[in-house]
Design a protein that fits this description.
about 525 residues; alpha/beta; Rossmann fold; Nucleotidyltransferase, domain 5; 2 domains; eight-stranded mixed beta sheet; seven-stranded mixed beta sheet; about 20% strand; disordered C terminus
């Protein structure tokens, strides 16, 4: 029996070492790679906020620290998660698995229900922050709010009121951040802001690790932000926590995958390429991400102009549904033509003429698009926007029973498209005059933040009242189908790295892309392919 060992009463780390704790996968818990977790494990500050990435071992820490406090410090604890399902996904595979794998936990577990467990004399209530009725019936000494940013903020407030009777009144809040100045990020800004700093063995400078300065994107290695030397895993491991806002009453830690030695720089780069910007910042870097009030203005689109001749092979078509159908045609070299028609026959003619992969918006008139998808299997697909998917990829293909249908997360995919335009990655193989209507439609959409019923802010794309936005959506469908045909993964990546594209585009005058003197571009473009709209 380890229960009576005095050490366990003093230190959670001694308790873990003494009992050779194993994690939920039955592997011994170690602090060599997880060295950055030693101080947070040891930290019993009553008011803690942790702004964190995914996959860095925090769940394990939360499970063990909470059980240790209940069993050996005599605290009743509420452990809240966003929903009932999130609670199940936490208790079954993590808490219950830990208990199964560790004799020392089984010995102190005196009563075991899924959402209420007694460890020695105290309770941990595992709760989904979903109902007011449930929230007001229990009180606690420590409130742990996990996934704070994704929980109902009103219910969390009720839970907080349940601490008042306690002589402790401790509150620990963890979350992957969402947007700036909200939830965990807002709390973090009012904390003592502990960041992990590491020392370069070359220039001896201590530094935090950042995506911008600590990764060489070409070589995909970690580098010293000061002298550029490659950083070894050992250098990243041997860091220390430093408070950047010392003296604040609240304890804060920022934890990112950059400090995890088992996450390579190329893994970080891969996630940057394959995930949405929100996911990358929130879940990989553990930082908030906000593109509020973004618009796509004329100058951004003009920068995407790349007039010239390109091969017309592997063509893709995006079609915005409506009485008038707006279409965008192009291939990996960029958008080559776009136009509109009132006739589905005309759309089918384009599909046949170019033998193009086609994505058609299903709404508001789904019949003909569905017929076309059936008539041209594996070639023509229909599309639905979906909202607020917690899916990790921007676009996902449906499984077999939904063949011919592509769903995409509206905000994410439109963010992605806007990002490609504002960064100049997407190309329009045409002149500025030819781009004019596209500019008009794109300038009618804008991104803003909306607050949902759970008081959580989310990005949303809106259209100026009574203004057309059809080409922007047609462009989006074109971009999705282009991706679907190019990569086997079905995941939108940031495509066509600049160096590749410059090899691929056939431009008569190779100086075109440098500046963007409009008249100059138009003059050069005028030399080639005047008939781009005549199909
Ligand atoms: Zn250095």
């Amino acid at each position: 029996m380890k229960e009576g060992t005095p050490l366990a009463y003093h230190s959670v780390l001694a308790w873990i070492y003494e009992n050779q704790f194993k994690n939920e996968n039955d592997k011994l818990i170690e602090f060599t790679d997880h060295r950055f977790l030693l101080q947070p494990y040891h930290d019993d500050h009553p008011d803690q906020v942790i702004m964190k990435s995914a996959q860095i071992g925090w769940s394990m820490l939360a499970v063990l620290k909470s059980i240790h406090l209940a069993a050996y410090k005599g605290l009743n604890i509420i452990y809240s998660l966003p929903t009932q399902n999130a609670m199940k996904d936490f208790v079954e595979p993590k808490v219950d698995a830990m208990i199964r794998n560790n004799q020392a936990l089984r010995e102190i577990l005196k009563s075991d229900r899924q959402n209420l467990k007694r460890y020695n004399d105290r309770y941990i209530y595992y709760r989904g922050a979903f109902g007011e009725r449930e929230a007001i019936t229990i009180s606690a000494d420590l409130l742990i709010q996990d996934e704070l940013d994704r929980s109902d903020q009103k219910i969390l407030g009720i839970y907080r009121s349940r601490l008042q009777a306690s002589e402790y009144g401790w509150m620990w809040r963890f979350s992957n951040p969402s947007v700036s100045n909200f939830g965990v990020h807002e709390l973090w800004l009012n904390s003592d802001m502990h960041r992990w700093i590491i020392q370069c063995t070359g220039c001896k400078k201590w530094q935090t690790l950042t995506w911008e300065d600590s990764i060489d994107k070409k070589k995909e290695i970690y580098i010293c932000s000061s002298c550029g030397k490659e950083l070894t895993n050992e250098e990243r491991i041997r860091g220390k926590w430093r408070a950047f806002n010392p003296g604040a009453k609240r304890r804060g830690y920022h934890v990112s995958q950059l400090m995890a030695p088992w996450v390579s720089a190329s893994k970080i780069c891969e996630q940057f390429r394959e995930e949405s910007p929100e996911f990358f910042y929130n879940f990989v870097l553990g930082e908030p991400y906000t593109v509020a009030d973004l618009t796509i203005d004329r100058s951004a689109l003009i920068k995407c102009l790349a007039p010239g001749k390109v091969p017309m092979d592997d063509m893709c078509l995006g079609v915005d549904n409506g009485v008038t159908k707006h279409w965008v045609l192009g291939n990996k070299h960029g958008v080559i033509r776009y136009g509109k028609t009132d006739s589905w026959d005309e759309i089918e003619r384009i599909i046949k003429h170019y033998n193009c992969y086609t994505l058609i918006d299903a709404n508001p008139y789904p019949n003909v698009p569905k017929e076309l998808a059936e008539k041209y299997p594996h070639k023509v697909f229909i599309h639905y926007y979906i909202q607020d998917r917690k899916g990790l990829s921007t676009v996902r293909k449906m499984t077999k029973q939904d063949r011919g249908v592509i769903h995409s997360d509206r905000t994410k995919i439109l963010d992605f498209l806007a990002g490609e335009i504002t960064s100049g990655k997407l190309k329009f193989v045409m002149t500025d005059r030819e781009l004019e209507e596209m500019i008009y439609h794109c300038s009618n959409v804008y991104r803003t933040l909306e607050t949902n019923s759970q008081q959580i802010q989310k990005g949303v794309w809106l259209t100026k009242e009574n203004k057309p936005d059809h080409y922007y959506h047609a462009l989006c469908y074109w971009r999705i189908i282009l991706e679907e045909t190019l990569t086997p993964s079905g995941v939108v990546v940031r495509p066509n790295e600049p160096q590749k594209r410059s090899n691929a585009i056939v431009v008569e005058d190779d100086k075109i892309s440098a500046g963007f003197d409009l008249r100059e571009i138009a003059r050069k473009a005028g030399k080639v392919q005047k008939d781009w709209r005549s199909i």
